[in-house]
Structure formats: C-alpha cells, structure tokens
Design brief:
Elements: H1 11-38, E1 41-48, E2 56-60, E3 73-74, E4 79-86, E5 89-97, E6 100-102, E7 109-112, E8 118-124
Antiparallel strand pairs: 1-4, 2-5, 3-4, 5-6, 5-8, 7-8
Length: about 120
Amino acid sequence: MIKVSAPKGGAVAKAADSVKAAVKADKRRAAATAKAERAPFKVSFVLPVSETPEPVSVCGDFNGWDPLAHPMKKRANSTRSVSIEVPPGRYAFKYLSGGTWFTEPAAHAQESNEYGETNSILEVG
C-alpha cells in the first residue's frame, strides 16, 4: 500500500483542508435540509360550533381513521378545533359527528374513495 499525504502547512495542505471543510459544510446543509423536509407540520382543523351540535372528530389517513384519536374541543370563540402534527404528505380525511361523515369545503381537494363517497384532501409540505 502506498499512502501519499500533503505536507503540513503547505499550500496543498491548506487547499485540501479547505475542500474538506466545504464538503463537511455541504453534508451538514444536506442533512439539515433532509431533516427539515421530514419534520412534522402542525395542522389545525377548525369548525364553527353551529356546524353540528354533537361532538366532532377528525378522521383520516394520518390517524388510521380512528374517531377517538382527534376529537375536536369546543372553544370560547364558538368554534371546535384540534391541532395535529403530520409529516409532509398527502392525506385523505373527513369529519365524523353523531355517526355522520362530512367533508371540509376549504380542503386542498376532494376525491372519491373506494366506497363511492368523497374525502377531503390535505396536502402538507
């Protein structure tokens, strides 16, 4: 095996150190960007209390469609709300109140599901 090292303190060594520092900085930036792209986003769902007198839950791909996972709480400003954190992605969801499912008119999109019904679509990231 032959190993060649630049002399310490010379111009070549300084240039090599500069390149190594630049590579490390690029790796740190790439890692930070990748982490930021995976970081969860806070999403708040808000409905007027007048929408339905019964309790409401948000159900969707992000919680396995579990009505107990994200119940909305009544607020002093005559709304119900819940906030969740989700990683970037595309999620189908609906509200459930008193056994009745309904969509969010202000959602990013609406699409049909496998039951011939409509889901609201949330796009994050």
